[in-house]
Amino acid sequence: MALARPASRSRPAAGAPGQGAAAAARRPGWLSLVAGGLRLPDAPGPGTGPRPPLGLVLPAALVGLAMLLPVAYLFIRTAGAWDRVLDLLLRPGTWAIAGRSLGLVAAVTATGVVLAVPLAWLVARTDLPGRRFWAVVTVLPLAIPSYVGSFLYVVAAGPHGLLQRLLAPLGVERLPDLHGFWGAYLVMTLFTYPYILLPVRAALARLDPALEEASLSLGRGRWATFQAVILPQLRPAILSGARLVALYTLAEFGAVATLRYETFTWALYVQYQSAFDRAAAGGLALVLVAAALGILGLDAVLRERWRYHRDTPGTPRPPARVPLGRWRWPALAFCAAVALLALGVPLAVLVYWAVRGVLEGRWWDLLGPATLNSLAVSALAAVGTVAAALPVAALGARYPGPLSGLIDRASYVGFAIPGIVIALAMVFFGIRFLGPLYQTVALLVAAYVIVFLPTALGPLRASWLQVDPKLEEVARTLGRRPWQVLAGVTLPLVRPGLLAGAGMVFLVTLKELPLTLILSPAGFDTLATSVWNSITEAFFGQAAVKSLLLVAASAASVGWILRREGEWEA
Fold first, then answer.
1. Which of 56, 162, 272, 459 could be stapled to 500 by a disulfide with Cβ–Cβ 3.0 to 4.6 Å?
2. 35 and 113: one domain?
3. Closest by alpha carbon to 460, among 406, 382, 566?
4. Neighbour tally for 9: CB within 10 Å
5. Is residue 89 located within the same domain as residue 1?
6. What is the pLDDT of residues 267-282, one digit of tens each?
């Protein structure tokens, strides 16, 4: 396995006197011996490598343009109203809300990394007891809608919630109020860390154990080996997941509104729903897009474009399980604590309300069509999103440069725009240019692809970076056509990332609400919309049972993904 780190054009060539040689001399001596030498060659900088084929550039560019449709809609809406937009943006209150939004984004993202990386390593690489159980349980919080999760936490741990009632005999009359920053921080962290967990776990499944074993044989401890050998190889997966968490938190409205923490999306929704000023709302959404582009720019700086692929003879093989020893029980306690807060508390409240709601009527007759609709549209969204992500991931992994970087950043814009803006943009273009597709499942799936493309692109690109390009080159020299190389060589090797991406798209589509409410055909009900309707009508028992069914469907999909990835092997 080699780690290649491309340098800028002004950097001296590898092995030449100067800065490059001096940097090599400063590297720890043990590192140069790992696996026969851990090579850090300089890869061509942007614009110096081979040109990407048109058959790859064209579909990737079309995907990038499609992702910018919501931005085009915002520019159309704000045309001729820049004076009102500027007046709104210059208000001190607007920038105070923006500061609170960015603070929440930073806190949730950092904590998500702290939770997800050790969880992924414990499940994928150790002899953790009940490893297969924790592999499913730690991902399931992703299936709980944020607006449902925030409501459940207010009901469970609010000042006079269920927990306070249980503690009342002990003299506890009131619990701390969850509303505000700390409540939003807690809820958003618990329900978004799986965005980081899944790509990191997929990346761990593809790491070459030879580097780790060689480091250990040279006297390095487990912790030092993890820091110097394993963690650097996980950077693309960590950053791709962190990018999703940051963008998701930036665009979230339901949870922060329930917990009364004013973020930037709050100001946008006020303009849409109260002031009825779509031009001003469009201007605020453009600022939200600019903030998203800033996050993507920071991600590009931190990523450093590392390459990970096997460069030594041998066959990739599963790594040996790391014995936890005396750390087994602290590891179990850590997994149990995260699962209890992220899944146990919401499920306990749901079961409580479900028991109270079983006698409310024959509402379960409506669950069959809603469940089938949810599964069908989520499967379509997963297939369509992965298909759209393939050319973008291939272009970015094999032909880094200005064009691939631009398309990659455009692919993440839709994830940072609130769902109502995406839905209105699809309605706008659907009525004017796509009349036959308006109010059809096809337009709904297209909206899902625009919003959830990053959830498939991140893990897929991280897996693609771990595939040795020499394998593809050898296949081409043997007379294989590009599509044959893709189907017979590349796709089997990137399967962990492909399945992780498809699984995440399936999960987040199951719980998607704003797009489904606005764009779904008449009479097309899903589990998410059915839950929302029950909550708005104060039928909490019905909503609880439907939410439990939503979690069960997600659990089944996660189990299938893990089985295909080989995570169920002992």
1. 459
2. no
3. 382
4. 9
5. no
6. 776 666 665 566 667 7
